[in-house]
Amino acid sequence: MKATIRAAKAVTKGYSDAQSKVRDATKNDSSSPSARELDEIAHLSYSRPDFIEIMELVDKRLNDKGKLWRHVYKALAVINHLLHAGSPQVYHYCHNNLYVFKTLREFQYIDDAGMDVGQTVRSEAKEVTTLLLSPEELKSRRRRGPGSTSFNDRVRGTPRRERPNSDPRQSAQQGKRQRSEEDGDLARAIELSKSVEEERLRKIRDSNNGGLFDLVPEYVLLCMSWTYSV
Q1: What's the pLDDT tens digit per position in 163-183?
Q2: Phi, psi torsion values for 103, nearest 5 degrees
Q3: Distance CA 213, CA 63 (A)
């Protein structure tokens, strides 16, 4: 019955297919997101429109509090899976919003039974934060992840391991090319995150410098007034 109601809400509120999958994976109950749900969301993240819709809803879930702590925990679980198996753009987006995950490491909520259920959120937030601060480790995990697929395979929805190939050497070469492609995508996302952060810091420095020099004329005039008054 709850599934029917949820499906009806998805239609009436205009949720897309991608957003509906995120809602199902992060619903406020005691179940955990299934491997199938997580894989489907990871697959959709390679589509730019779907990626935007996925992150929009995940961001909304991450901002829930109190009794909706399961929304937060499951949204973190979705992010964790996307970092391992989704589009490299997930890393770029999350790294640019690193403060959100750092803040969630301090998430607090005690349920009616007196249990510190916020601990599950803090633990997941710490793991995601560690991944975002360890890009080389993340690349290594993505390379050796089970059922790893190339970008083209994800778009077609056909896992590489299911594609027939009678030549082991050719399979090895394809696997090497695939890992190289995914490493390149993630490396570009990492570099883009670095450049965005550097630009942000430069603007802050320029703003601070400008503010300092703008005060100089006023400071000089003030000193002159003190001199004449003395």
Answers
A1: 334 444 554 455 555 556 656
A2: -65, -40
A3: 39
Report pLDDT digits (tens) over 119-164: 999 999 999 999 999 999 999 999 886 554 433 343 334 333 333 3
Q: What is the pTM of this model?
A: 0.64
| Distance of alpha carbon 48 from alpha carbon 96, whole angstroms | 17
Rounded Cα–Cα distance for residues 139 and 184 (Å): 10
Neighbouring CB atoms inside 10 A of 19's CB total 20
For residue 115, give the H/E element and its range.
none
Q: Is the pLDDT of residue 1 over 70?
A: no
Total residue count of the chain as it appears in this document? 230
CA distance 35 to 90: 18
In order of 33, 117, 211, 222, 225, the CA distances from 214 in angstroms are: 54, 51, 5, 14, 18
Q: Which of 128, 144, 156 is nearest to 47 (CA)?
A: 156
CA atoms within 13 A on the CB side of 32: 6
Tokens standing for residue 224: 């002159």
* CA separation for the pair 122, 124 (Å, rounded): 6
Angle at 196 between CA 195 and CA 198, to 5 degrees: 60
Task: Give the Cα separation of 211 and 222 in Å (integer).
Answer: 17
8 Å CB contact between 131 and 82: no
**Which residue in the block uniquely carries the two structure tokens 């702590």?**
69
List the beta bridge partners of residue 116: 110
Mean pLDDT of 76-92: 97
